[in-house]
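Q: Got a minute? One more chain.
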Amino acid sequence: MKHADPYDAVVIGGGKGGKTLAMYLARQNYKAALIERDPMMIGGGCINVACIPTKTFIASARLIRSIRRAAEYGVKVEGVSVDWLGVRKRVEEVVSEMRVLNLRNFTSIPGLDFILGVGRFVGPQALEVTQNDGVVRQLTSKRIFIDTGTRPAIPDLPGLPDIPFLTSDTIQLLNAVPSRLLVLGAGYVGLEFAQMMHQFGSNVTVLERGEQILSREDAEVAETLANCLRGEGVEIQLNAAVEQVRKFSDDQVGVTFRTSKGEKEWTGSHLLVALGRAPVTKDLNLPAAGVETTAQGFIKVNDRLETNVSGIWAIGDVSGGPQFTHASLDDFRIVRDNVFGNGSRSRSDRYVPSTLFTEPELAHIGLTEKEAMARGLEFQVLQVPITPLTVPRAKTTGQMEGLMKATVEKSTQRILGCTILAAEAGEMIGTVQAVMIAEMPATVLRDAVLSHPTMVEGFNALFAAV
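A: Always. Here it is, folded:
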């Protein structure tokens, strides 16, 4: 082996958990290296192609929706149009600023070697890094952390390689709003882009293989959100088994799918494939280190994020855990405390919330009703619709769509899980999460003196029957 540069720790991939870990170690006087392959991904996928840009797009889309509803609030607005390139420009400015701030952090911390390049294992404690400038380096470390993230999953679908389909990354680069958008998949990504593009002026149809959108959610939650989306003009076709796609004409794509009523073909100007995420592990040469992966390519880890090889950890999306930035940040805390402290933290004892940024928002924490049933738990189901009586704030803002639902353990009155489909649900769910973390009974929210009129005041109504 050529001369190798030794490090106390090496982090491959600059996602939320990885970059936070690398900066923490450098500040603690460890000699650390952070390897990032793409200069346009500095700071991780969340900043560059996921959370931040998509929610910035959604902010513009929500403003458009509000303007279109202005007359309902006694406000007259005329001559409003969508400047798509202006929307894109704002998104790019937000992303660029955050990318620059991250690069400044990486390059200003003494002891942190920030390397732009591709890292691959050549042994359990050895890496070969091909830098973007062509220089090849050898690195060694007894502590290597993998945080390479995920990419849009591309299905093996007949005809797909022959058409210019879109992913959650490439749809953000369009120079115009699609006239008719077909979306494959009714998960988080598919639904956010479907509603967003509809609000920007696209005619949108979502095709979902399953019998409901958002397969994890309880049926009435999924149905309520689906009805909200349909009510504003997004078409949703359930039980649609896509069989092939094809180029229908120079500016049209066709999707052939089968339902209980037979075979159909729908056409559109653009096709968005939103069928989940796949791990970015191909270039790591994991067999050289002996690291095991799942059949889907995610790196196998235990609840302490340790791989089967001593001295190698995987954090963030690539480890197969919840694919959220806040989960990746908590992965950092687990590794920090367990590897570099005296802790015994684990993924098994944490509550990870999720938020779908549709209108209304859908936020969730803990167990759904069907998950609690599958575990054989004794629990009470609480559910209230969003009405002027349950959540007066929603009436004042004209955002009356949705419901709130919770599962409460009968023996302890502790909250097992909560789902909120409402305006500002993402902000509300943290209140329930705090009660769950503190292991307090649901009666705390039933009896709390909550400010009026606010959305969280609805918890008094939701937990009234405890």
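A: The mean pLDDT is 97.
Q: Perfect, thanks.
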